[in-house]
């Protein structure tokens, strides 16, 4: 059986240099201020552990999607400053990735010091899994640790190609990465029952694979958000101008049928907040899903659906939530998502939230502390739930003796 190599399995030699691939892809406002530093805080246990082994640390991450080398707005400098405050120690910042500044600073790094490279994606080779870039990065350190769960579903140079340059005694997964994988695996393999999956968001297409993989594993499935309308339409409802993926109607009908065969209870909204236009100042109406007026669109679940879903969740022992119940970015259509967040946070179940938007909802609702686990990686967490093997994780597996 193959298992992931844990940072705890590594015997770090004091005085060594350790490269830690983090996911510091943090949201920033138009002034460059970090608006949510969850990802930076999540990396701290691994950084501290490595420092406590008597090693020095070289941190690397991507930020956003720079196209053509250095761009000020994608610089990791604000992240270095925030981390410096959180760790209460100096972070030596390199103004490039594998250039002279990074090389000199890495070479002069002393025991117990922490340095950060500039945004990995300023190097074009990063997203191309380029072996030259990987080998330049590997020259900086004796050990490699990956704690960047959010990018493990991509074969990029700093999470994939680079691992070939270290043997199993010198590479490992960090604490955050291990925690993410364990939560997803426990959810799929041994959930406490009843297990309820709550899905939402805009599109069926983005979650189809996850729904298909989850269906035989869950006891109940709640479908809200924009994706619910393709299911409602497949059941013959008139959904007005609500979001519809016409080409997936048959697939949606199949999921409903499969659910019936498996004995999985599937719940859809019974009422919606309908709007005339997709805008914050549109006229709105609370209507049952059977009475959406022609030309109107459902932009949030209504109060009766909230009550129904709350009831469905009341005996849950495990809840997995991915996707908002409505267009939560506009206040008028955020109530359904907020109330679901409260209901999930208040339940006695093990609660796991995945996806950037859903984490944002939970944060805005003030419920983040009451959720058992909030995944830091949207795409990666969805792929784990879909049952896929992540390229960045596969390369850190070893055969258990
Ligand atoms: P996703 O990335 O698929 O999880 O979708 C998240 C997005 O779905 C959010 O930006 C929401 O605004 C959007 N969304 C949720 N409910 C609806 C709806 N009823 N109609 C249109 N968009 C929606």
From TrEMBL:
The keyword Cytoplasm applies. It catalyses: (2R)-3-phosphoglycerate + ATP = (2R)-3-phospho-glyceroyl phosphate + ADP. It holds the Pfam family PGK. (2R)-3-phosphoglycerate binds at residues 39, 121, 154. It is found in: Cytoplasm. It comes from Campylobacter iguaniorum. Monomer. Belongs to the phosphoglycerate kinase family. This is Phosphoglycerate kinase. GO terms for biological process: gluconeogenesis; glycolytic process. Keywords: ATP-binding, Cytoplasm, Glycolysis, Kinase, Nucleotide-binding, Transferase. Substrate binds at residues 23-25, 39, 62-65, 121, 154. GO terms for cellular component: cytosol. GO terms for molecular function: ADP binding; ATP binding; phosphoglycerate kinase activity. Pathway: Carbohydrate degradation; glycolysis; pyruvate from D-glyceraldehyde 3-phosphate: step 2/5. Its EC number is 2.7.2.3. The keyword ATP-binding applies. ATP binds at residues 207, 298, 329, 355-358. InterPro entries: Phosphoglycerate_kinase, Phosphoglycerate_kinase_N, Phosphoglycerate_kinase_sf.
């Amino acid at each position: 059986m193959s298992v992931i190599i844990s940072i705890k399995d590594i015997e770090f030699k004091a005085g060594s240099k350790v490269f830690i691939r983090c996911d510091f892809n943090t949201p920033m406002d138009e002034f460059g201020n970090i608006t949510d530093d969850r990802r930076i805080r999540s990396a701290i246990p691994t950084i501290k552990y490595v420092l406590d082994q008597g090693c020095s640390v070289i941190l690397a991450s991507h930020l956003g999607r720079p196209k053509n080398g250095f761009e000020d707005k994608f610089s990791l400098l604000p992240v270095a400053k925030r981390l410096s405050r959180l760790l209460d120690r100096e972070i030596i910042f390199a103004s490039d990735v594998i250039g002279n500044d990074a090389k000199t600073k890495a070479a002069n790094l002393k025991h117990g010091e922490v340095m950060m490279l500039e945004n990995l994606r300023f190097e074009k080779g990063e997203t191309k899994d380029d072996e030259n870039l990987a080998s330049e990065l590997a020259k900086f350190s004796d050990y490699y640790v990956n704690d960047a769960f959010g990018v493990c579903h991509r074969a990029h140079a700093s999470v994939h190609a680079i691992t070939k340059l270290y043997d199993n005694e010198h590479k490992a997964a960090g604490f955050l990465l291990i925690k993410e994988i364990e939560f997803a695996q426990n959810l799929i393999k041994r959930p406490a029952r009843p297990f309820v999956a709550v899905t939402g968001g805009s599109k069926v297409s983005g979650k189809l694979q996850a729904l298909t993989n989850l269906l035989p594993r869950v006891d109940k499935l709640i479908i809200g958000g924009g994706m619910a309308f393709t299911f409602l339409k497949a059941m013959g409802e008139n959904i007005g101008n609500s979001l519809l993926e016409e080409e997936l109607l048959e697939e949606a009908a199949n999921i409903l049928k499969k659910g019936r065969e498996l004995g999985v209870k599937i719940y859809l909204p019974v009422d919606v907040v309908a709007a005339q236009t997709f805008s914050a100042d549109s006229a709105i109406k609370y209507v049952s899903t059977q009475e959406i007026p022609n030309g109107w669109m459902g932009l949030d679940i209504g109060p009766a659906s909230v009550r129904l879903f709350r009831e469905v969740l009341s005996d849950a022992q495990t809840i997995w939530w991915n996707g908002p119940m409505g267009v939560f970015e506009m206040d008028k259509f955020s109530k359904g998502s907020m109330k679901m967040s409260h209901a999930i946070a208040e339940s006695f179940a093990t609660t796991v939230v995945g996806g950037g938007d859903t984490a944002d909802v939970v944060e805005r609702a003030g419920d983040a502390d009451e959720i058992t686990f909030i995944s830091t990686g949207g795409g990666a967490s969805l792929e784990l739930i879909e049952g896929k093997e992540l390229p960045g994780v596969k390369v850190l597996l070893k055969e258990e003796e």
